[in-house]
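testing teh design pipeline on a random one, pls ignore if ur not involved
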């Protein structure tokens, strides 16, 4: 029954990054880095891989082929060793450093998830090429792809993180040179190092440097000696407590599309790390088969209840939109240099005649699940643009308006046309409109997102990444998307003057934004000390209760004039 639920073909990632033994190493690294952006790049060996479609996630390697035969493999871990040796990447060829022979699995033998997993564990490999009967490569199997098709978090809810986590974790400080980080990765044959700050004898995780980060630096031909861990680390490092279940850990990994979590104590101090490998190795096939039948019956019951509930909520939301029960509030944004109000974020509110004030955290997920987020999003966009024009007509300067956009809205084929149409109908200048998206929105469809970004920015609209730092920021992520604004999440601003961890993260984000010519907005600013710290670090704009809570349309105008007098 378990086999019936699992489509093994979905575990095979099409191997789109292919090079020959004589390919220059730098070109191979660029090919590997390009595949991390979900773009198929074949170097000097076109059409050697069958069924080449875009992978659901990056395989983290390139295959080496000669005369249509697989002769080697080059992985992210190999790139770390190259970084330590200081190889001349342009004058070194792939055949000098590739791993050979390659461990493979015939497609007809890939009859079960655990066949591949046990083989990878036995040979201590993370990439397993799958061959057809003609010994041609069909694709790759990785731990990540196995986890995705297995979807086994139901089976992990009775096990704790503390049972399987890795307790001995290599750490470095933010100022550690990247070359030294690469040396540690190579010396201990590990995939990551946690970047920490020390406070009162305890280590607190602030980021992580992985093999992939080293690869990207090499592909960009950056000198490792001149960089520190702080400037290249991915942050923040998502965490889980040791007493939580493995199911919780697995859900966090899957939600944010990451492969590692820090394990922390009650005070947030580092206790260990948990990876996909830790999760997969606890699975017992016999246990899975035994539990599955019980779970199937329960899932069917829950799905029936869910359909009934969503139908009811769908009707309530649609009626609320029809009856004009929604309104917009606006939270002012201030320029830290001029101390002037230069913008506002539009925030939706629902006041139900029957239930009173309903939090957006309650009705937005329902709107997304039922598809009502599309008409609701259009209403927000049209209303905000209309009221922004009304402010200008009332004598206010051309204040910029920021609007949150969901993944479904961005994926809607008419989204850009709708935005252009609403701007034309309301008369709002495109330069005054800012569209805010969370980091999680970006990973839904990278190519589509890039195209939508381009079309919107050609109109003059700026793109802001909301809640920056709560998703999974990395070099490839920053490299892929052309942003205009980064918004630092309020969780990093709170107690920033007392919390060394938060202050280090915020300072790093601002420095990164400066180097990449992004503007920075800090959310959730509530005190003078927080404002002063952000101004000292070079932050551009702030919003939060220190300036003002969100205000309805009429009160925003009054606030603006009162604030201008106090400035």
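output:
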């Amino acid at each position: 029954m378990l086999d019936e639920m699992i489509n093994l073909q979905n575990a095979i990632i099409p191997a789109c990054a292919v090079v020959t033994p004589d390919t220059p190493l730098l070109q191979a690294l660029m090919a590997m880095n390009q595949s991390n952006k979900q773009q198929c790049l074949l170097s000097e060996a076109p059409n050697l891989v069958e069924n080449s479609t875009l992978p659901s996630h990056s395989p983290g390697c390139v295959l080496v082929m000669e005369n249509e035969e697989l002769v080697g493999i080059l992985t992210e871990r190999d790139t770390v060793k190259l970084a330590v040796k200081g190889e001349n990447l342009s004058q070194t060829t792939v055949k000098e450093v590739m791993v050979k022979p390659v461990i493979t699995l015939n497609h007809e033998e890939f009859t079960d998830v655990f066949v591949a997993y046990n083989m990878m564990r036995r040979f201590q490999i993370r990439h397993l090429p799958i061959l057809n009967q003609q010994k041609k490569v069909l694709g790759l199997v990785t731990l990540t792809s196995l986890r995705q098709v297995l979807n086994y978090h139901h089976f992990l809810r009775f096990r704790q993180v503390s049972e399987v986590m890795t307790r001995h974790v290599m750490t470095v400080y933010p100022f550690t040179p990247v070359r030294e980080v690469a040396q540690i990765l190579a010396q201990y044959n590990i995939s990551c190092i946690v970047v920490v700050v020390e406070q009162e004898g305890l280590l607190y995780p602030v980021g992580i440097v992985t093999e992939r980060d080293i690869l990207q630096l090499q592909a960009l031909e950056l000198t490792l000696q001149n960089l520190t861990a702080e400037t290249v680390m991915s942050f923040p490092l998502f965490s889980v407590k040791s007493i939580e279940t493995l199911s919780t850990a697995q859900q966090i990994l899957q939600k944010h599309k990451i492969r590692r979590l820090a394990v922390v104590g009650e005070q947030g101090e580092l206790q260990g790390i948990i990876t996909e490998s830790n999760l997969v190795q606890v699975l017992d096939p016999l246990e899975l088969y035994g539990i599955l039948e019980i779970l199937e019956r329960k899932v069917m019951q829950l799905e029936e209840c869910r359909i009934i509930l969503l139908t009811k909520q769908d009707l309530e939301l649609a009626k609320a939109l029809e009856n004009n029960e929604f309104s917009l509030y606006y939270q002012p944004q201030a320029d830290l240099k001029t101390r002037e109000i230069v913008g506002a974020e539009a925030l939706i509110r629902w006041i139900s005649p029957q239930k009173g004030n309903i939090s957006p955290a309650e009705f937005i997920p329902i709107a997304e699940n039922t598809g009502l987020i599309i008409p609701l999003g259009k209403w927000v966009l049209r209303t905000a643009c209309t009221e922004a024009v009304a402010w200008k007509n009332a004598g206010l300067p051309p204040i910029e308006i920021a609007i949150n956009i969901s993944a479904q809205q961005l994926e809607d084929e008419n989204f850009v046309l709708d935005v252009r149409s609403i701007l034309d109908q309301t008369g709002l200048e495109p330069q005054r409109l800012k569209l805010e998206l969370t980091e999680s929105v970006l990973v839904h469809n990278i190519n589509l997102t890039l195209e939508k970004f381009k079309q919107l920015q050609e109109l003059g609209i700026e793109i802001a990444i909301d809640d920056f730092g709560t998703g999974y920021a990395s070099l490839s992520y920053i490299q892929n998307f052309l942003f205009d604004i980064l918004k630092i999440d309020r969780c990093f601003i709170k107690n920033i003057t007392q919390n060394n961890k938060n202050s280090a993260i915020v300072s790093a984000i601002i420095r990164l934004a400066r180097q990449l010519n992004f503007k920075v907005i800090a959310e959730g600013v509530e005190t003078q000390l927080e404002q002063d710290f952000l101004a000292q670090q070079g932050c551009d704009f702030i919003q939060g209760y220190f300036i003002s809570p969100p205000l309805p349309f009429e009160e925003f105008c009054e606030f603006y004039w009162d604030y201008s007098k106090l400035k």
